[in-house]
Write a structure and sequence with these properties.
Blueprint: H1 8-14, E1 20-25, H2 39-54, E2 59-61, H3 83-98, E3 104-109, H4 115-126, E4 131-136, H5 137-141, H6 146-154, H7 159-184
Parallel strand pairs: 1-2, 1-3, 3-4
InterPro entries: Creatininase-like_sf, Creatininase/forma_Hydrolase
Pfam families: Creatininase
Cofactor: Zn(2+)
Length: 185
């Protein structure tokens, strides 16, 4: 269930079956001269969609949280918030979903700088009985297809690079789907 596309009657009908929330988190940052500031957002959005499409009926895909941070370096071009603020926001946001029956959280980290905030929020949620999957896709799954993916996401790609970029995300999505299913066990 993609929350932003769900109407009230659909929400009431589907919510009893949904126990997993997917929260894509990213930063708006200049990554390279030829890449848009939203490259992290576009990535976690697509990964979230791939997971939601495969696991429809049990998952709720939230809109991206696009004001993360870059706590591993000083980049003046990054729109960010402090680690504790982001961690508290994520924690309280997901606690609201716990009151509606959610007990699994998939935190899709689109930017390395968000890791500390997501880790802190995940730890707090775990103390309240949540099972949390924190995915650092760029660190955990970066592979040979990454350069084509970057070309595709920047809009400066050929049709071949676009196909390879989508294939790269589908491959990552498949791995993440397996991780989510493992979380449910």
């Amino acid at each position: 269930m993609k929350l932003v596309h769900t109407h009230r009657d659909q929400l009431n009908e589907r919510l009893p079956y949904v126990d997993t929330v997917i929260l894509p988190v990213c930063a708006l940052a200049v990554q390279a001269d030829d890449a848009p500031m939203g490259v992290d957002l576009l990535t976690v959005r697509r990964l979230g969609e791939i997971i939601e499409e495969s696991l429809t009926g049990r998952v709720c895909l939230l809109p991206e949280l696009a004001y993360g941070l870059f706590d591993i370096a000083d980049h003046t071009e990054t729109i960010e918030s402090p680690v504790s603020v982001l961690a508290d926001f994520i924690y309280h946001l997901l606690r609201g979903f716990q009151q509606r029956g959610m007990k699994y959280a998939v935190l899709l980290n689109g930017h390395e700088g968000n890791f500390t905030s997501l880790q802190l929020a995940g730890e707090r949620l775990r103390t309240e009985g949540w099972k949390v999957l924190l995915s650092n896709w760029r660190i955990e799954h970066e592979s040979e297809g990454f350069s084509e993916f970057q070309q595709w996401i920047s809009g400066a790609s050929s049709k071949n690079a676009a196909e390879k970029g989508e294939a790269y995300l589908r491959e990552l999505g498949t791995r993440l789907i397996e991780d989510v299913i493992s979380l449910w066990k």
